[in-house]
Amino acid sequence: MGFNSPSKIQETALPTLIADPPQNMIAQSQSGTGKTAAFLLASLSRVNTNLKYPHVLILSPTYELAMQTGKVAKQMAKFCPNIEFCFAVRGEVLQRGEKITAQFMIGTPGKVYDWAMRYKFFDLRKIKVFVLDEADVMISTQGYQDQSIRIHKQLPKDCQMMLFSATYSEEVMQFAELIVSDPIIIKLKREEESLDNIDQYYIVCRDKEEKFQALCNIYGTVTIGQAIIFCHTRKTASWLVEKMVKDGHSVALLSGELTVEQRIAILNRFREGKEKVLITTNVCARGIDVEQVTVVINFDLPVNQHGDADCETYLHRIGRTGRFGKP
Q: What's its catalytic activity (predicted)?
């Protein structure tokens, strides 16, 4: 899989997570440092292939992240024969009365809750390992929080819980400690939240036309593998795509209103290098790993619903580059 030695989060978290009796954990580590591999290895070690029902559950905030996590899990499971996977995500359809026999489930909160509580495809009371990926957004965003809490309430008391994220606000951490009993906590100091191998620069611009000119200047002077450009709204993202295409750049647009099939196709084309630039809203801010990305541009700086600076989203965005020690 290309791992030569464990990252800091892996060597810190894994011995605890795979030990018996199982320990709960709330873990923080910068973007791109191998958190996914840490919780997947721990989760895979708990699978009992004799059981023909889901007993490992990983919740992700988006379809794209759930599918990417599943891809990595399947690669790792090559060394663990007879583990079956299922994906509780948009577009997956089961027949009424069907019972899921796969041991390992990865999904988004709404779909997982529906499959368990409305359709009874599986039983949350039989889950032995529960992972909340991108735990900060799963706890702090109202819709995700409601669904995640409902799922959490159905889990057995002896279920091992793992919460992983690159960022945790104080309020989110307090809430996490309330819902996870007696956790081991791995937390970064505020100044450690950004990776040292990501160089950060800013350019002062008066309007979006000046921003576009600055973008063109960057392209003229910097050697770029692939780039992700983040915009605050779909409208700005569409405007920027139009401008860049006119300027002769090969670009793709990824935003929330696209269908599942369109989003998969766009991400696959970008991963294959068919487009060098991906312009997106916050759909790609978390967890999406494209090895060739060398530049991340915040065309608009992220803000929360109150218009205040959203530092957590900023850290997740810039973490799309500098993955696992790469410059």
A: ATP + H2O = ADP + phosphate + H(+)
- Domain assignment present for 2: no
Q: pLDDT value at position 144? A: 85
Count of alpha carbons within 13 angstroms of residue 307, beta-carbon side: 0
Where do the DSSP E strands lie in the chain? Answer: 25-28, 56-59, 85-88, 104-107, 129-133, 160-165, 184-186, 226-230, 251-254, 277-280, 293-298
Reading the block at residue 297, the tokens are: 């541009």
Rg (CA), the chain: 20
Q: Is the pLDDT higher at 224 or at 219?
A: 219
Shared domain for 41 and 160, answered yes or no, is yes
Residues 20 and 152 in one domain: yes
| Tokens 């988004």 sit on residue | 108
pLDDT tens profile 235-260? 999 999 999 889 888 888 988 788 87
> pLDDT tens, 73-82?
999 999 888 9
